[in-house]
Every structure is written in C-alpha cells, then in structure tokens.
Amino acid sequence: MKSFQILKNYTSWRKTKHIFRKLKLFDRQENEKNYKNQYLLGSVFSELLMLNLLANSKH
Q1: 12: Cβ–Cβ under 8 A, 6 or more apart, which residues?
Q2: Rounded mean pLDDT of 7-34?
Q3: H-helix or E-strand spanning residue 12
Q4: Where are the domains of the chain?
Q5: Do 47 and 58 meet the contact criterion of CB atoms below 8 Å apart?
Q6: Are 45 and 16 in contact (CB under 8 A)?
Q7: N or C terminus: which one in the chain shows less Cβ crowding within 10 Å?
Q8: Which domain of life is it from (predicted)?
Q9: Does the predicted model carry a pTM greater than 0.90?
C-alpha cells in the first residue's frame, strides 16, 4: 500500500514538472522576467514535492 502511495506521489510530481515545463515555454514567449519567476517557482515546488516524497517513503 505504501509503495503504491509513493508511486502515486511520484507520478503527480512528474506531471507537475511537465506542467511547469509548459509554463516555462509559454513565459519565454511572453517575457524573460516572467520566465525566470516561473522557473524559480517551479524549482521550489519540485523541491517541496520531492521532500514530501522522501518523507512519505520513510514511513
């Protein structure tokens, strides 16, 4: 059951990464400042999700 939860978290993390990748491409077309902000936001968000994933795997 726990491994299923971890897998679910990992796939949602991958989806989120994919969404942020799309956002980054869109923002690059819009303007560089926005692009950088989204990139930083994406990085922080990914880090938090990864930490969550690690915390869940320890239980």
Answers
A1: 49
A2: 70
A3: helix 2-30
A4: 13-58
A5: no
A6: yes
A7: N
A8: Eukaryota
A9: no
Q: Report yes or no: 33 and 52 within 8 Å, Cβ to Cβ.
A: no
Q: Label residue 25 by pLDDT band (50, 70, 90).
A: low
Write the burial class of residue 17 (CB in 10 Å: 0-12 exposed, 13-18 middle, 19+ buried).
middle
DSSP 23-57: HHHHHHHH-HHHHHHHHHHHHHHHHHHHHHHHHHH
The residue assigned the tokens 């993390």 is 13
pLDDT given at position 26: 61
Instruction: Tell me how far apart the alpha carbons of residues 31 and 1 are, in angstroms, rounded to a whole number.
Output: 44
Q: Which residues contact 54 (CB under 8 A, 6 or more apart)?
A: none
